[in-house]
Amino acid sequence: MKFLKTLLASFLGCAIALFIAVLVCIGFIGSLALLGQSSAPVVPENGILKMDFKNVVSERAVPVSAIALLQGQNTGTTTIYDAIKAVERAAADPGVRFIYMEPDNFAGSISSLEELRNALEKFRASGKAIISFTQTPTLGSYWLASVSDKIYMAPYGSGMILGLGSQMIYFKDLLDEIGINIQLIRHGKYKSAGEPYIKSEMSPENRKQNEDMLNAIWDSIGEEIAQARGITVEELDSMINGLRLDSPADFMKYGLIDGTATKDEMTEKLCTLYEVEDEKDLSFIPFDDYAISLVPKTVSKNKIAVVYADGEIVEGKSTENIGGDSFSKQLSEIRKDTTIRTIVFRVNSPGGSVSAAEKIKREIDLIKGQGRTVIASYGSYAASGGYWISANCDYIFSDATTLTGSIGVFSMIPDIGKVIKEKAHLNVYTIKTHEHADMFNMMRPLDAEEERYMQASVDTIYTKFTKLVAQGRGMEVGYVDEIAQGRVWAGTEALEIGLVDEIGGLADAIEYAAAVSGYSDYEVVQYPKPKTQIEMLMEQFGGMDAMLESPFENAYRNLEEVSGKMYARLPWDYEFEF
């Protein structure tokens, strides 16, 4: 079996190597063909800035992979910072008459949506108009559209504005059925990460924190929509609860749109606003191209580094997540770069490994110890380990919809001995030199002494967590313990209790960093640097060995990875229906 597996692996390795070589050659030829072309697209000097969101609005730049290019897919990303700066530039650009937006196509996080909407509010304040056309508005797309002077809806469209919701699945009954026992050690009555594995129902504490958090986020969204449309939040709530928003006639009746229009009728309206008679005389400026070509790339001796901590905090090295070793090494290189005096730490993370988070925090502390300014900016998440790594920053910006806090610690130890014996029909014999040497082998439950040992370890880390928050935020440890307990807070709530300093986005954080540093001009440099297409290609094929594992081997390895580790992480990956 081992010989056949090795032979198969060798064969696949040769085939993959040949395939990669071909792709590298294609990429090289393609690169040569592009040498004579301008890297920036050419956009009209005058016209209507068209925001149709063909590109995903992302935290940081993600190039199109070589494989996607070969498949004919060339949709890229526009970073939220470039998008915001483009809107700011458009407000002052005499060539931009107004903005035409199709918000239904928006793809991005809730924090990106919030920050872009705030930028569009400022655009309107400049005296220029925003016109939106929607066909099937959802809560997210309508929230974005509500910033407009006029909103039109397709007469055949339908809306699905139902409020905010989040589902949580509990696994204990299933795990009991198949014979797996999960032992959860935690500190914090609201620290519900791991709860679905030990309970069949949601705890009252977990229900309360999630209801309060969702309501706080809705308060921010609902108030902005209501204010924009000249209605009360109570009226908006009544419409949603009564399921009265479906057809365009419903939206028109309750004042949420200004009229209906087909696609061709919308074109006629744009002709009128642009003061031309024929569609061919309309001049559209594609927003994604505008963001790339017209946002100024300042070259200055004053540098502000924007460091993106995006993803889960994991041990070792990682390109997809925040690797404790690789990310702290990146921070160490920035620390040694004497040309960088000011850093904006953009955190978009639900947390993860405690030890990895501590490595990253250590590097942030060393940077601050050199007298440099570190400003934190929170995206959709900056919770648990995400808060751990940033609590000691000089100033913290958070979006209103950011999920933060979750100051707590947990550890899970799976016991799969029963399923191994009764379902897999395997007999496992343990030989050990000391009484607790098999504590984490997952073949038996912890005994009482081992549970006390793990609880003491979790409590020690929780105490350290609350102390570092108290030190970073200038609070008493007792107060931090009161607002901690693993509880998740929305950004507006976090501001009230002192976990953050100001509600604002990435652009606000950068402007603040420049102001406190006394920079009248500055250059923004981003870390980590975007990967090349070849690097992305190599990564895509780097995990081929896992394909040769059996499902059993893969499942066992994943369980073994989490057993006994300490985590500071959000209880769920919250994905709101927008």
Rg over CA atoms: 26 Å
Put simply, the count of helices is 21
Largest sheet: 8 strands, mixed
Question: In which range does the helix fraction lie?
Answer: 40-55%
Structural shape = globular
- Report the portion of residues in β strands: 15-25%
What is the count of β-strands?
22
Q: Main traits of this protein?
A:
578 residues, 6-stranded parallel beta sheet, globular
Report on this structure.
- The protein is α/β, with parallel strands linked by helices.
- It contains 21 helices and 22 strands.
- The strands form five sheets. Strands 10, 13, 15, 16, 17, 19, 20 and 21 form an eight-stranded mixed β-sheet that branches.
- Strand 5, helix 5 and strand 6 form a beta-alpha-beta unit.
- Helix 16 packs across helix 17.
- The two termini are 49 Å apart.
- The N terminus is likely disordered.
Fold blueprint:
Blueprint: H1 2-34, E1 47-51, E2 56-58, H2 66-70, E3 77-79, H3 80-92, E4 96-101, H4 110-125, E5 130-134, H5 139-145, E6 150-153, H6 172-178, E7 181-187, H7 204-229, H8 233-241, H9 248-253, E8 259-260, H10 263-274, E9 284-286, H11 287-294, E10 303-310, E11 313-314, E12 322-323, H12 324-336, E13 340-349, E14 351-353, H13 354-369, E15 373-383, H14 385-388, E16 395-398, E17 403-405, E18 409-415, H15 417-422, H16 448-473, H17 477-483, E19 488-490, H18 491-497, E20 502-503, H19 506-517, E21 523-527, H20 533-542, H21 551-562, E22 566-569
Parallel strand pairs: 1-4, 1-9, 2-3, 4-5, 5-6, 6-8, 10-13, 10-21, 11-12, 13-15, 15-16, 15-17, 16-20
Antiparallel strand pairs: 7-18, 14-22, 17-19, 18-22
Helix pairs in contact: 1-20, 3-4, 3-11, 7-8, 12-13, 16-17
Protein name: Signal peptide peptidase SppA
GO cellular component, one term: membrane
GO molecular function, one term: serine-type peptidase activity
